[in-house]
Amino acid sequence: MGMSSSKENRLAKEASPYLQQHAKNPVDWFPWGEEALAEAKRSDRPILLSIGYSACHWCHVMERESFENEEIASLMNERFVNIKVDREERPDLDQIYQLVVQLLGRSGGWPLTVFLTPEQKPFFGGTYFPPADRYGMPGFPKVLASISDAYNTKRDDVFSQAGELAEAIASATKGGGRSEGAAYSPAPDLLARATAKLGTRFDDENPGFGTRPKFPNTMSVDVLLRRGKIEADPVSATRARAALHAMRSGGIYDHLGGGFHRYSTDEMWLVPHFEKMLYDNALLLRLYADGYQAFGDATFRLICEEIAAYVRREMTAPDGGFYATQDADSEGEEGKFFVWSAQEVREAMGNDIDGADFAIAHFGITDNGNFEHTGKTVLSAVVPIDEIARTYDRPLPDIDAALARAKARLLEARDTRIKPFRDEKIMASWNGLMIGALAHAGAALGDAEMIAMAERAFAYVEAKLLVTDSATSARPKTEGLRVLRHAKDGVAKGPGFLDDAAFVACAALDLYEATATPRYVGVARAIVDATLAHFWDAEEKGFFFTASDGEALIHRAKDPFDHAIPSGTSMACLALLKLGALVDASYATYATTELERLAPAAMENPFGMSQTICVLDRLVRGATDVVVVGALSDDRTRALGHAALAAYVPNLNVAWVDPTDSASLAACALLADGKPPHHEPVAYVCRGRTCSAPMAYATELADALAYEETTVEAIAEAHESA
Length: 722
Description:
Blueprint: H1 17-21, E1 30-31, H2 34-43, E2 47-52, H3 57-67, H4 70-79, E3 81-86, H5 91-103, E4 112-116, E5 122-126, H6 140-153, H7 155-174, H8 190-199, E6 202-203, E7 208-209, H9 218-230, H10 234-249, E8 263-264, E9 272-273, E10 276-277, H11 278-295, H12 298-314, E11 325-326, E12 329-330, E13 333-334, H13 342-349, H14 353-362, H15 385-392, H16 396-414, E14 422-423, E15 426-427, H17 428-445, H18 448-465, E16 466-469, E17 480-483, E18 486-488, E19 491-493, H19 498-515, H20 519-535, H21 568-582, H22 586-604, H23 610-621, E20 624-629, H24 635-646, E21 652-657, H25 662-667, H26 669-672, E22 682-687, E23 690-691, H27 698-705, H28 712-721
Parallel strand pairs: 1-3, 2-3, 20-21
Antiparallel strand pairs: 2-4, 4-5, 6-7, 8-9, 10-11, 11-14, 12-13, 15-18, 16-17, 18-19, 20-22, 22-23
């Protein structure tokens, strides 16, 4: 018995834009909660759990084809209790039930479609199902009928499968990354071994990891960059730099508006899936800032500036927080907002013939196009500027000026089109990533506006998404802070998960280094104290993804693996190591315990645990601590700190010591110890147990931080001498 499509279902009352998109479906949707679970038990019907997110193209396709279809909706309503979940709100549910599809031998993804017993145990699952049999895939009505019939006539088999899958999920997530392979203890050969394995998946012809679809895989590129620059491995350095250039040249990059799309549908970075995610752009902003520091490539600096401009223009709420996503579709068509024909370019450019000609050449716009037989073109930097100059026999400055005019005019014209939908949830974890990236990039590039954006967004997070925790018993020295999951229209929802806490804590520490504001260390410490109290497994060690007082699901999982974002575990360890250096060495013991436990799994699967590899590198190599001592009001003090932050030093800690400010001293008590003030601001560079003599000049400090192409053997010798 289907609902009329003119009526609204229960999702109309939800804050999530993704759930609201399904509010007029004839499906009798429930949000996840007690009402739905109780109804499944009362009616003895299986649960149809559908998980997606607002920018997901195939989620929209399945909605149009199936969830808006009266006949299919009637079948769903008659035979199932239907629950719709926004994965961005409930990553804990998504984490558990994605495993079902993988355990059944299929690739995971979204939309996720899983069938559960009323006790929440899964017994079958998949992703997108077409409305009728197609390309060897069963139609959704056939799947629904088969699942319902099996549940009603083969109950024992269904419950047996559900039990086996529940046990497999528990087994897959309990170990938290333990490896069944050879044991590995963190050692100086960490990056060499990791990059050797990563290299087997690198595409040197179209630089990046994998074939199609091709994702940025920023954490793995970071591993290559570290190995290439600080251990002088030319292959890794070349691959990292080539991947950065290939991504920014391809259609995965928005050449008019800045920012990156989610991934490329081909191996050449040419045609993207057009949604834009805050987290991708945060991770890429940080990576391109690192690339600029490492290589001094002005193109990488420009990409950083354009990502920040895009975020400022398109993704920033009036009160400073950052929105979550922009859709792939506009007017019901994927990519329509972003693609161009030559005629559209000429119309937009008007009398500017040079601007039109050079843009058409540079961006590879052809009469046939390159996008799904539409005759339209996804813009990519196909023809280099110097080649256009030779072809047209014009000086390079003319080409540069004409292309700058073209980009500005085409962006202006594009903004008159109907824009893709924007999900205006403000996610704590993703905001943490972007805040940290802006602080890091702003400090690296000397861009005060990026740092100001980061501070403003952090103020929003503090005001809306941080709440005092009265149950921080594990670390009684400070009053803990819990991080809620997200806010929408000023209303916060929780609870937060491990990634929310870890990413916001790391963002606070990035802001401390970029601004010298000691209060940020206190916020990070309070978040980490609450995280240890509620997420740390005191018995078997490691971090759970959900808090001890969170909703009880079929299993409380640990997940040390990177997905589209770094693992919460690795980022929590990073925050612990930084706080262990700044204020209390006991913080680092938690990180050391967890990183040593994860090292075998990380070495076995560096592609899935690249962020853990990066944090392990900090543990193995030791941090480089730069302690700046001087009045913060003195420009010379700031110049020393800025010199440190501009250098490519992946495992850096910057401590700001103002001898006249007790808060400044407390924020870095351990690193400040034994660093007396001088008659002028000075900086100390400390590696391991050895510190340099005080340096008063920024140029001297920059020279001291330049890497001397350290070999694995040299690292080993340093460890032995320590």
